[in-house]
Amino acid sequence: MVNSKSLKTEILVIGSGIAGLSIALKLAAKHKVIVLAKSSLSEGSTNYAQGGIAAVLDPFDSIESHIVDTEEAGAGLCDPAAVELVAKHAAHSIRELIELGVPFSRCEGNECTYPFHLTQEGGHSHRRVIHAADHTGHSVLETLIQAVYSHPNITLLPDHISIDLILNKAHKRCIGAYVLNKRENTVYDIWADFTVLATGGASKAYLYTSNPDTSTGDGIAMAWRAGCSVANLEFNQFHPTCLYHPQDRSFLISEAVRGEGGILRLPDGTAFMEQYDSRKDLAPRDIVARAIDHEMKKHGLDCVYLDITHKSREFIQNHFPTIFERCLNDGIDISEEQIPVVPAAHYTCGGVVTNLSGETDLAGLYAIGETAYTGLHGANRLASNSLVEGLVFAETARQSIEKAYEQPLNNDEAPRPWDSSLVTDPAEKILVSHDWDELRRVMWDYVGIVRTNDRLKRARQRIRNLQKEINEYYCEHTVHSDFLELRNLALVAELMVKSAQTRKESRGLHYNLDYPGLRKKAKPTILKPKPAKKTKHKS
Questions:
Q1: Which residues participate in catalysis according to the annotation?
Q2: Beta strand segments in 360-508, E
Q3: pLDDT grade for 122, boundaries at 50, 70 and 90
Q4: Contact 56, 328 (CB under 8 A)
Q5: 3-state secondary structure of 329
Q6: Count of H helices and E strands in the chain?
Q7: Is position 430 within any domain?
Q8: Do 51 and 160 belong together in one domain?
C-alpha cells in the first residue's frame, strides 16, 4: 500500500451525520469543504434516529422547562451554559430544517398549538419533540444529503475512513488527516485549514447495540492520540427498548412509543415501572434500562414486553410506520401483540472535550455531535437532545471557524506522506475478527448497565492485552478498515473503563454496586493523554 495522492481543502469534515452535514452546508457558503464518510453518506446513527428533535416550539412550553428537564436527566453533571445554549437555540435550528424541506409530521385537529405534531418522551415535562413519523433521523439526513450533493463547494468522499490526524508540531495545530480510500485500498493525506470531527459515538463497543456498525469511536480515538482531553466516557446510555428477536439484528423501538402510552410489562402482563419511579414508563432512560435489567435478572427472562395494543391499528400505523412494518416482518403485529424488548447500548454521553464553540484542546480541530463532550448531557442524555445538539453546535463551530479565518492560520508545514515501507500485508485477518468479538463481550459482561470494581478491573486487564496485540499488528501490517475500527474502539473502550474506575459513586448511567451512593459534589471525569508514541507507519 503506497501513498497515491494528496488533497488540500479549507475545511475537512470527518463524518456525514446531522452534525457533519450541517456544518458542511453552513461553511460551504464561503469555503471549500471535503466531507468524509467511512461508508455511504447515509450509513450512520442519524439515519436510525426514530424519535425526534427536542425544542421549545409549543407556546405553552418554556426554555426554562427544557433546561430543568435536561439538568434533571443529567443527574447534576450538566454544564449549565451548554444546556442554556442548546435550549435557547434549538427552535432556530428546527426552523432551518423546515426551510430545507424536512417533512416533519403535521399536527391535525382543532387542538393544535403548533403546525407540526409534537410528542412527549421520557424525562420531558412537555410535548416538545418534533418528528417525522418514526423516521426522523432518516428524513433529516436525506434532506441534508440532497443539499450537500447539489452544493458546488462540497466534495463528498464516501468509503473513506480516517486513520489519524496530521499535526503541525511547531504550532501545535491540526492540519488535516491521513485517510484510507476503502475502494482503492490506498492511503493519502488531506491537508486542511480546519478539521471537524463529527464521527459519532462508540456504542459498537458493546455486544448489543441499537446503532449501526459505524459507531466505533473513531473521532474520540484520533483526538486522544493527537493529544486532546476526553471526558465522561463512563456514561454510556443503554436504550431501554430494542426489539428482541433471535433472528434479527437489534432494532430500536422509539421512546415515542412509551410517550404515546406504551406500557412495559412482564410476560404475565404485570406493569412494573411504577415500582421504580413515579413517572413510570416515562422515567429517564437510565432508570428504565436498569429496571428492565433488574426484572430480567430477577425472573430469568430473555426480554420484557412493551404494550401499545390499547391504541388503534390506524393510530399505530400513522405514528410508528417503520416500527410497525419492521415488527410485522418478524411476525409481530404490534396492534395486537406486545413487543419483546431488551436494553442495548445506544449513546455515548462523553467524548472529546470542547468549549461552546466546538473547539478542542488542539488548534484547528473541532468536535461536534456525539463524538464531543460539550457538557449538555451530563450523566445521562435526555431523550431527543442528541440531534439538536449536533445542529446547535454546528452553528457555534461555524461562527468560531469564520472568526478564526480573520487571523493567520500558521499552516506553513506540509503534511508528511504516509509511509508503508516498513510494513507488510497481513497473511490472515482472523486476529482482527477474534479481537472484535472478545472486546465487545468483555464490555457487555463487565462494563454494562450495572458494574462492580472487580468487573471493571477484569475488563481493564483484558482490554490491555487486546491493545498490545492491536498495536503490534498496526506496527507490522498494512491497514484495512476493520482493523482501523478495532484499533479505535479498543482505545475508546479502555478509556471508558478507566473513566468508570475513576468515578467512586453511582450517578446517572454509571451504576457501580460497590459505590451505590452519590457524592455530595458532582464533577466530570476528565482524562488527559500522555504524548503519543511513534509508529513504523509514520515517515
A1: 285
A2: 365-367, 372-373
A3: confident
A4: no
A5: helix
A6: 14, 18
A7: no
A8: yes
- Cα gap 484→474, rounded to integer Å: 9
The residue among 179, 154, 133 whose CA lies nearest residue 21 is 154
- Residues 385 and 301 grouped into a single domain: no
Same domain for 133 and 170: yes
CATH assignment at residue 305: 3.90.700.10
Q: Is 295 left (phi over 0), alpha (psi -120 to 50) or beta?
A: alpha
Closest CA to 50 of 235, 284, 211: 211
Tell me: do 292 and 190 sit in the same domain: no
Half-sphere exposure of 528 (CA within 13 A, CB side): 2
Alpha-carbon distance 29 to 189, whole Å? 24
Asked if residue 250 lies in contact with residue 239, where contact means CB atoms within 8 angstroms, the answer is no
Q: Which residues pair with 344 in a beta bridge?
A: 239
- Is residue 536 in a domain? no
β-strand partners of 106: 116
- Tell whether 87 and 198 lie within a shared domain: yes
From CA 457, how far away is CA 402, in angstroms rounded?
A: 45
Residue that terminates a domain, selected from 404, 419, 438:
404
In this structure, the answer to whether residues 216 and 243 fall within a common structural domain is no
pLDDT digits (tens, 9 = 90+) for 335-381: 999 999 999 998 999 999 999 999 999 999 999 999 999 999 999 99
- C-alpha distances (whole Å) from 509 to each of 68, 140, 279, 333 are 18, 28, 18, 32
Number of domains in the chain: 2
- Whose CA is closest to 13, among 315, 394, 373, 386? 394
Show the domain range for 387. Answer: 3-205+212-226+358-404
Higher pLDDT, 444 or 223: 223
Alpha-carbon separation of residue 58 from 61, 84, 86, 128, 436 (angstroms): 5, 18, 16, 7, 46
Q: Average pLDDT in the 131-144 region?
A: 91
The answer to whether residue 174 is domain-embedded is: yes
Percent over 70 (pLDDT), the chain: 96
Provide the CATH number for the domain around residue 150: 3.50.50.60
Residue range 150-168, pLDDT digits in tens: 999 999 999 999 999 999 8
**First-last CA distance in the chain:** 14
Residues in a beta bridge with 245: none
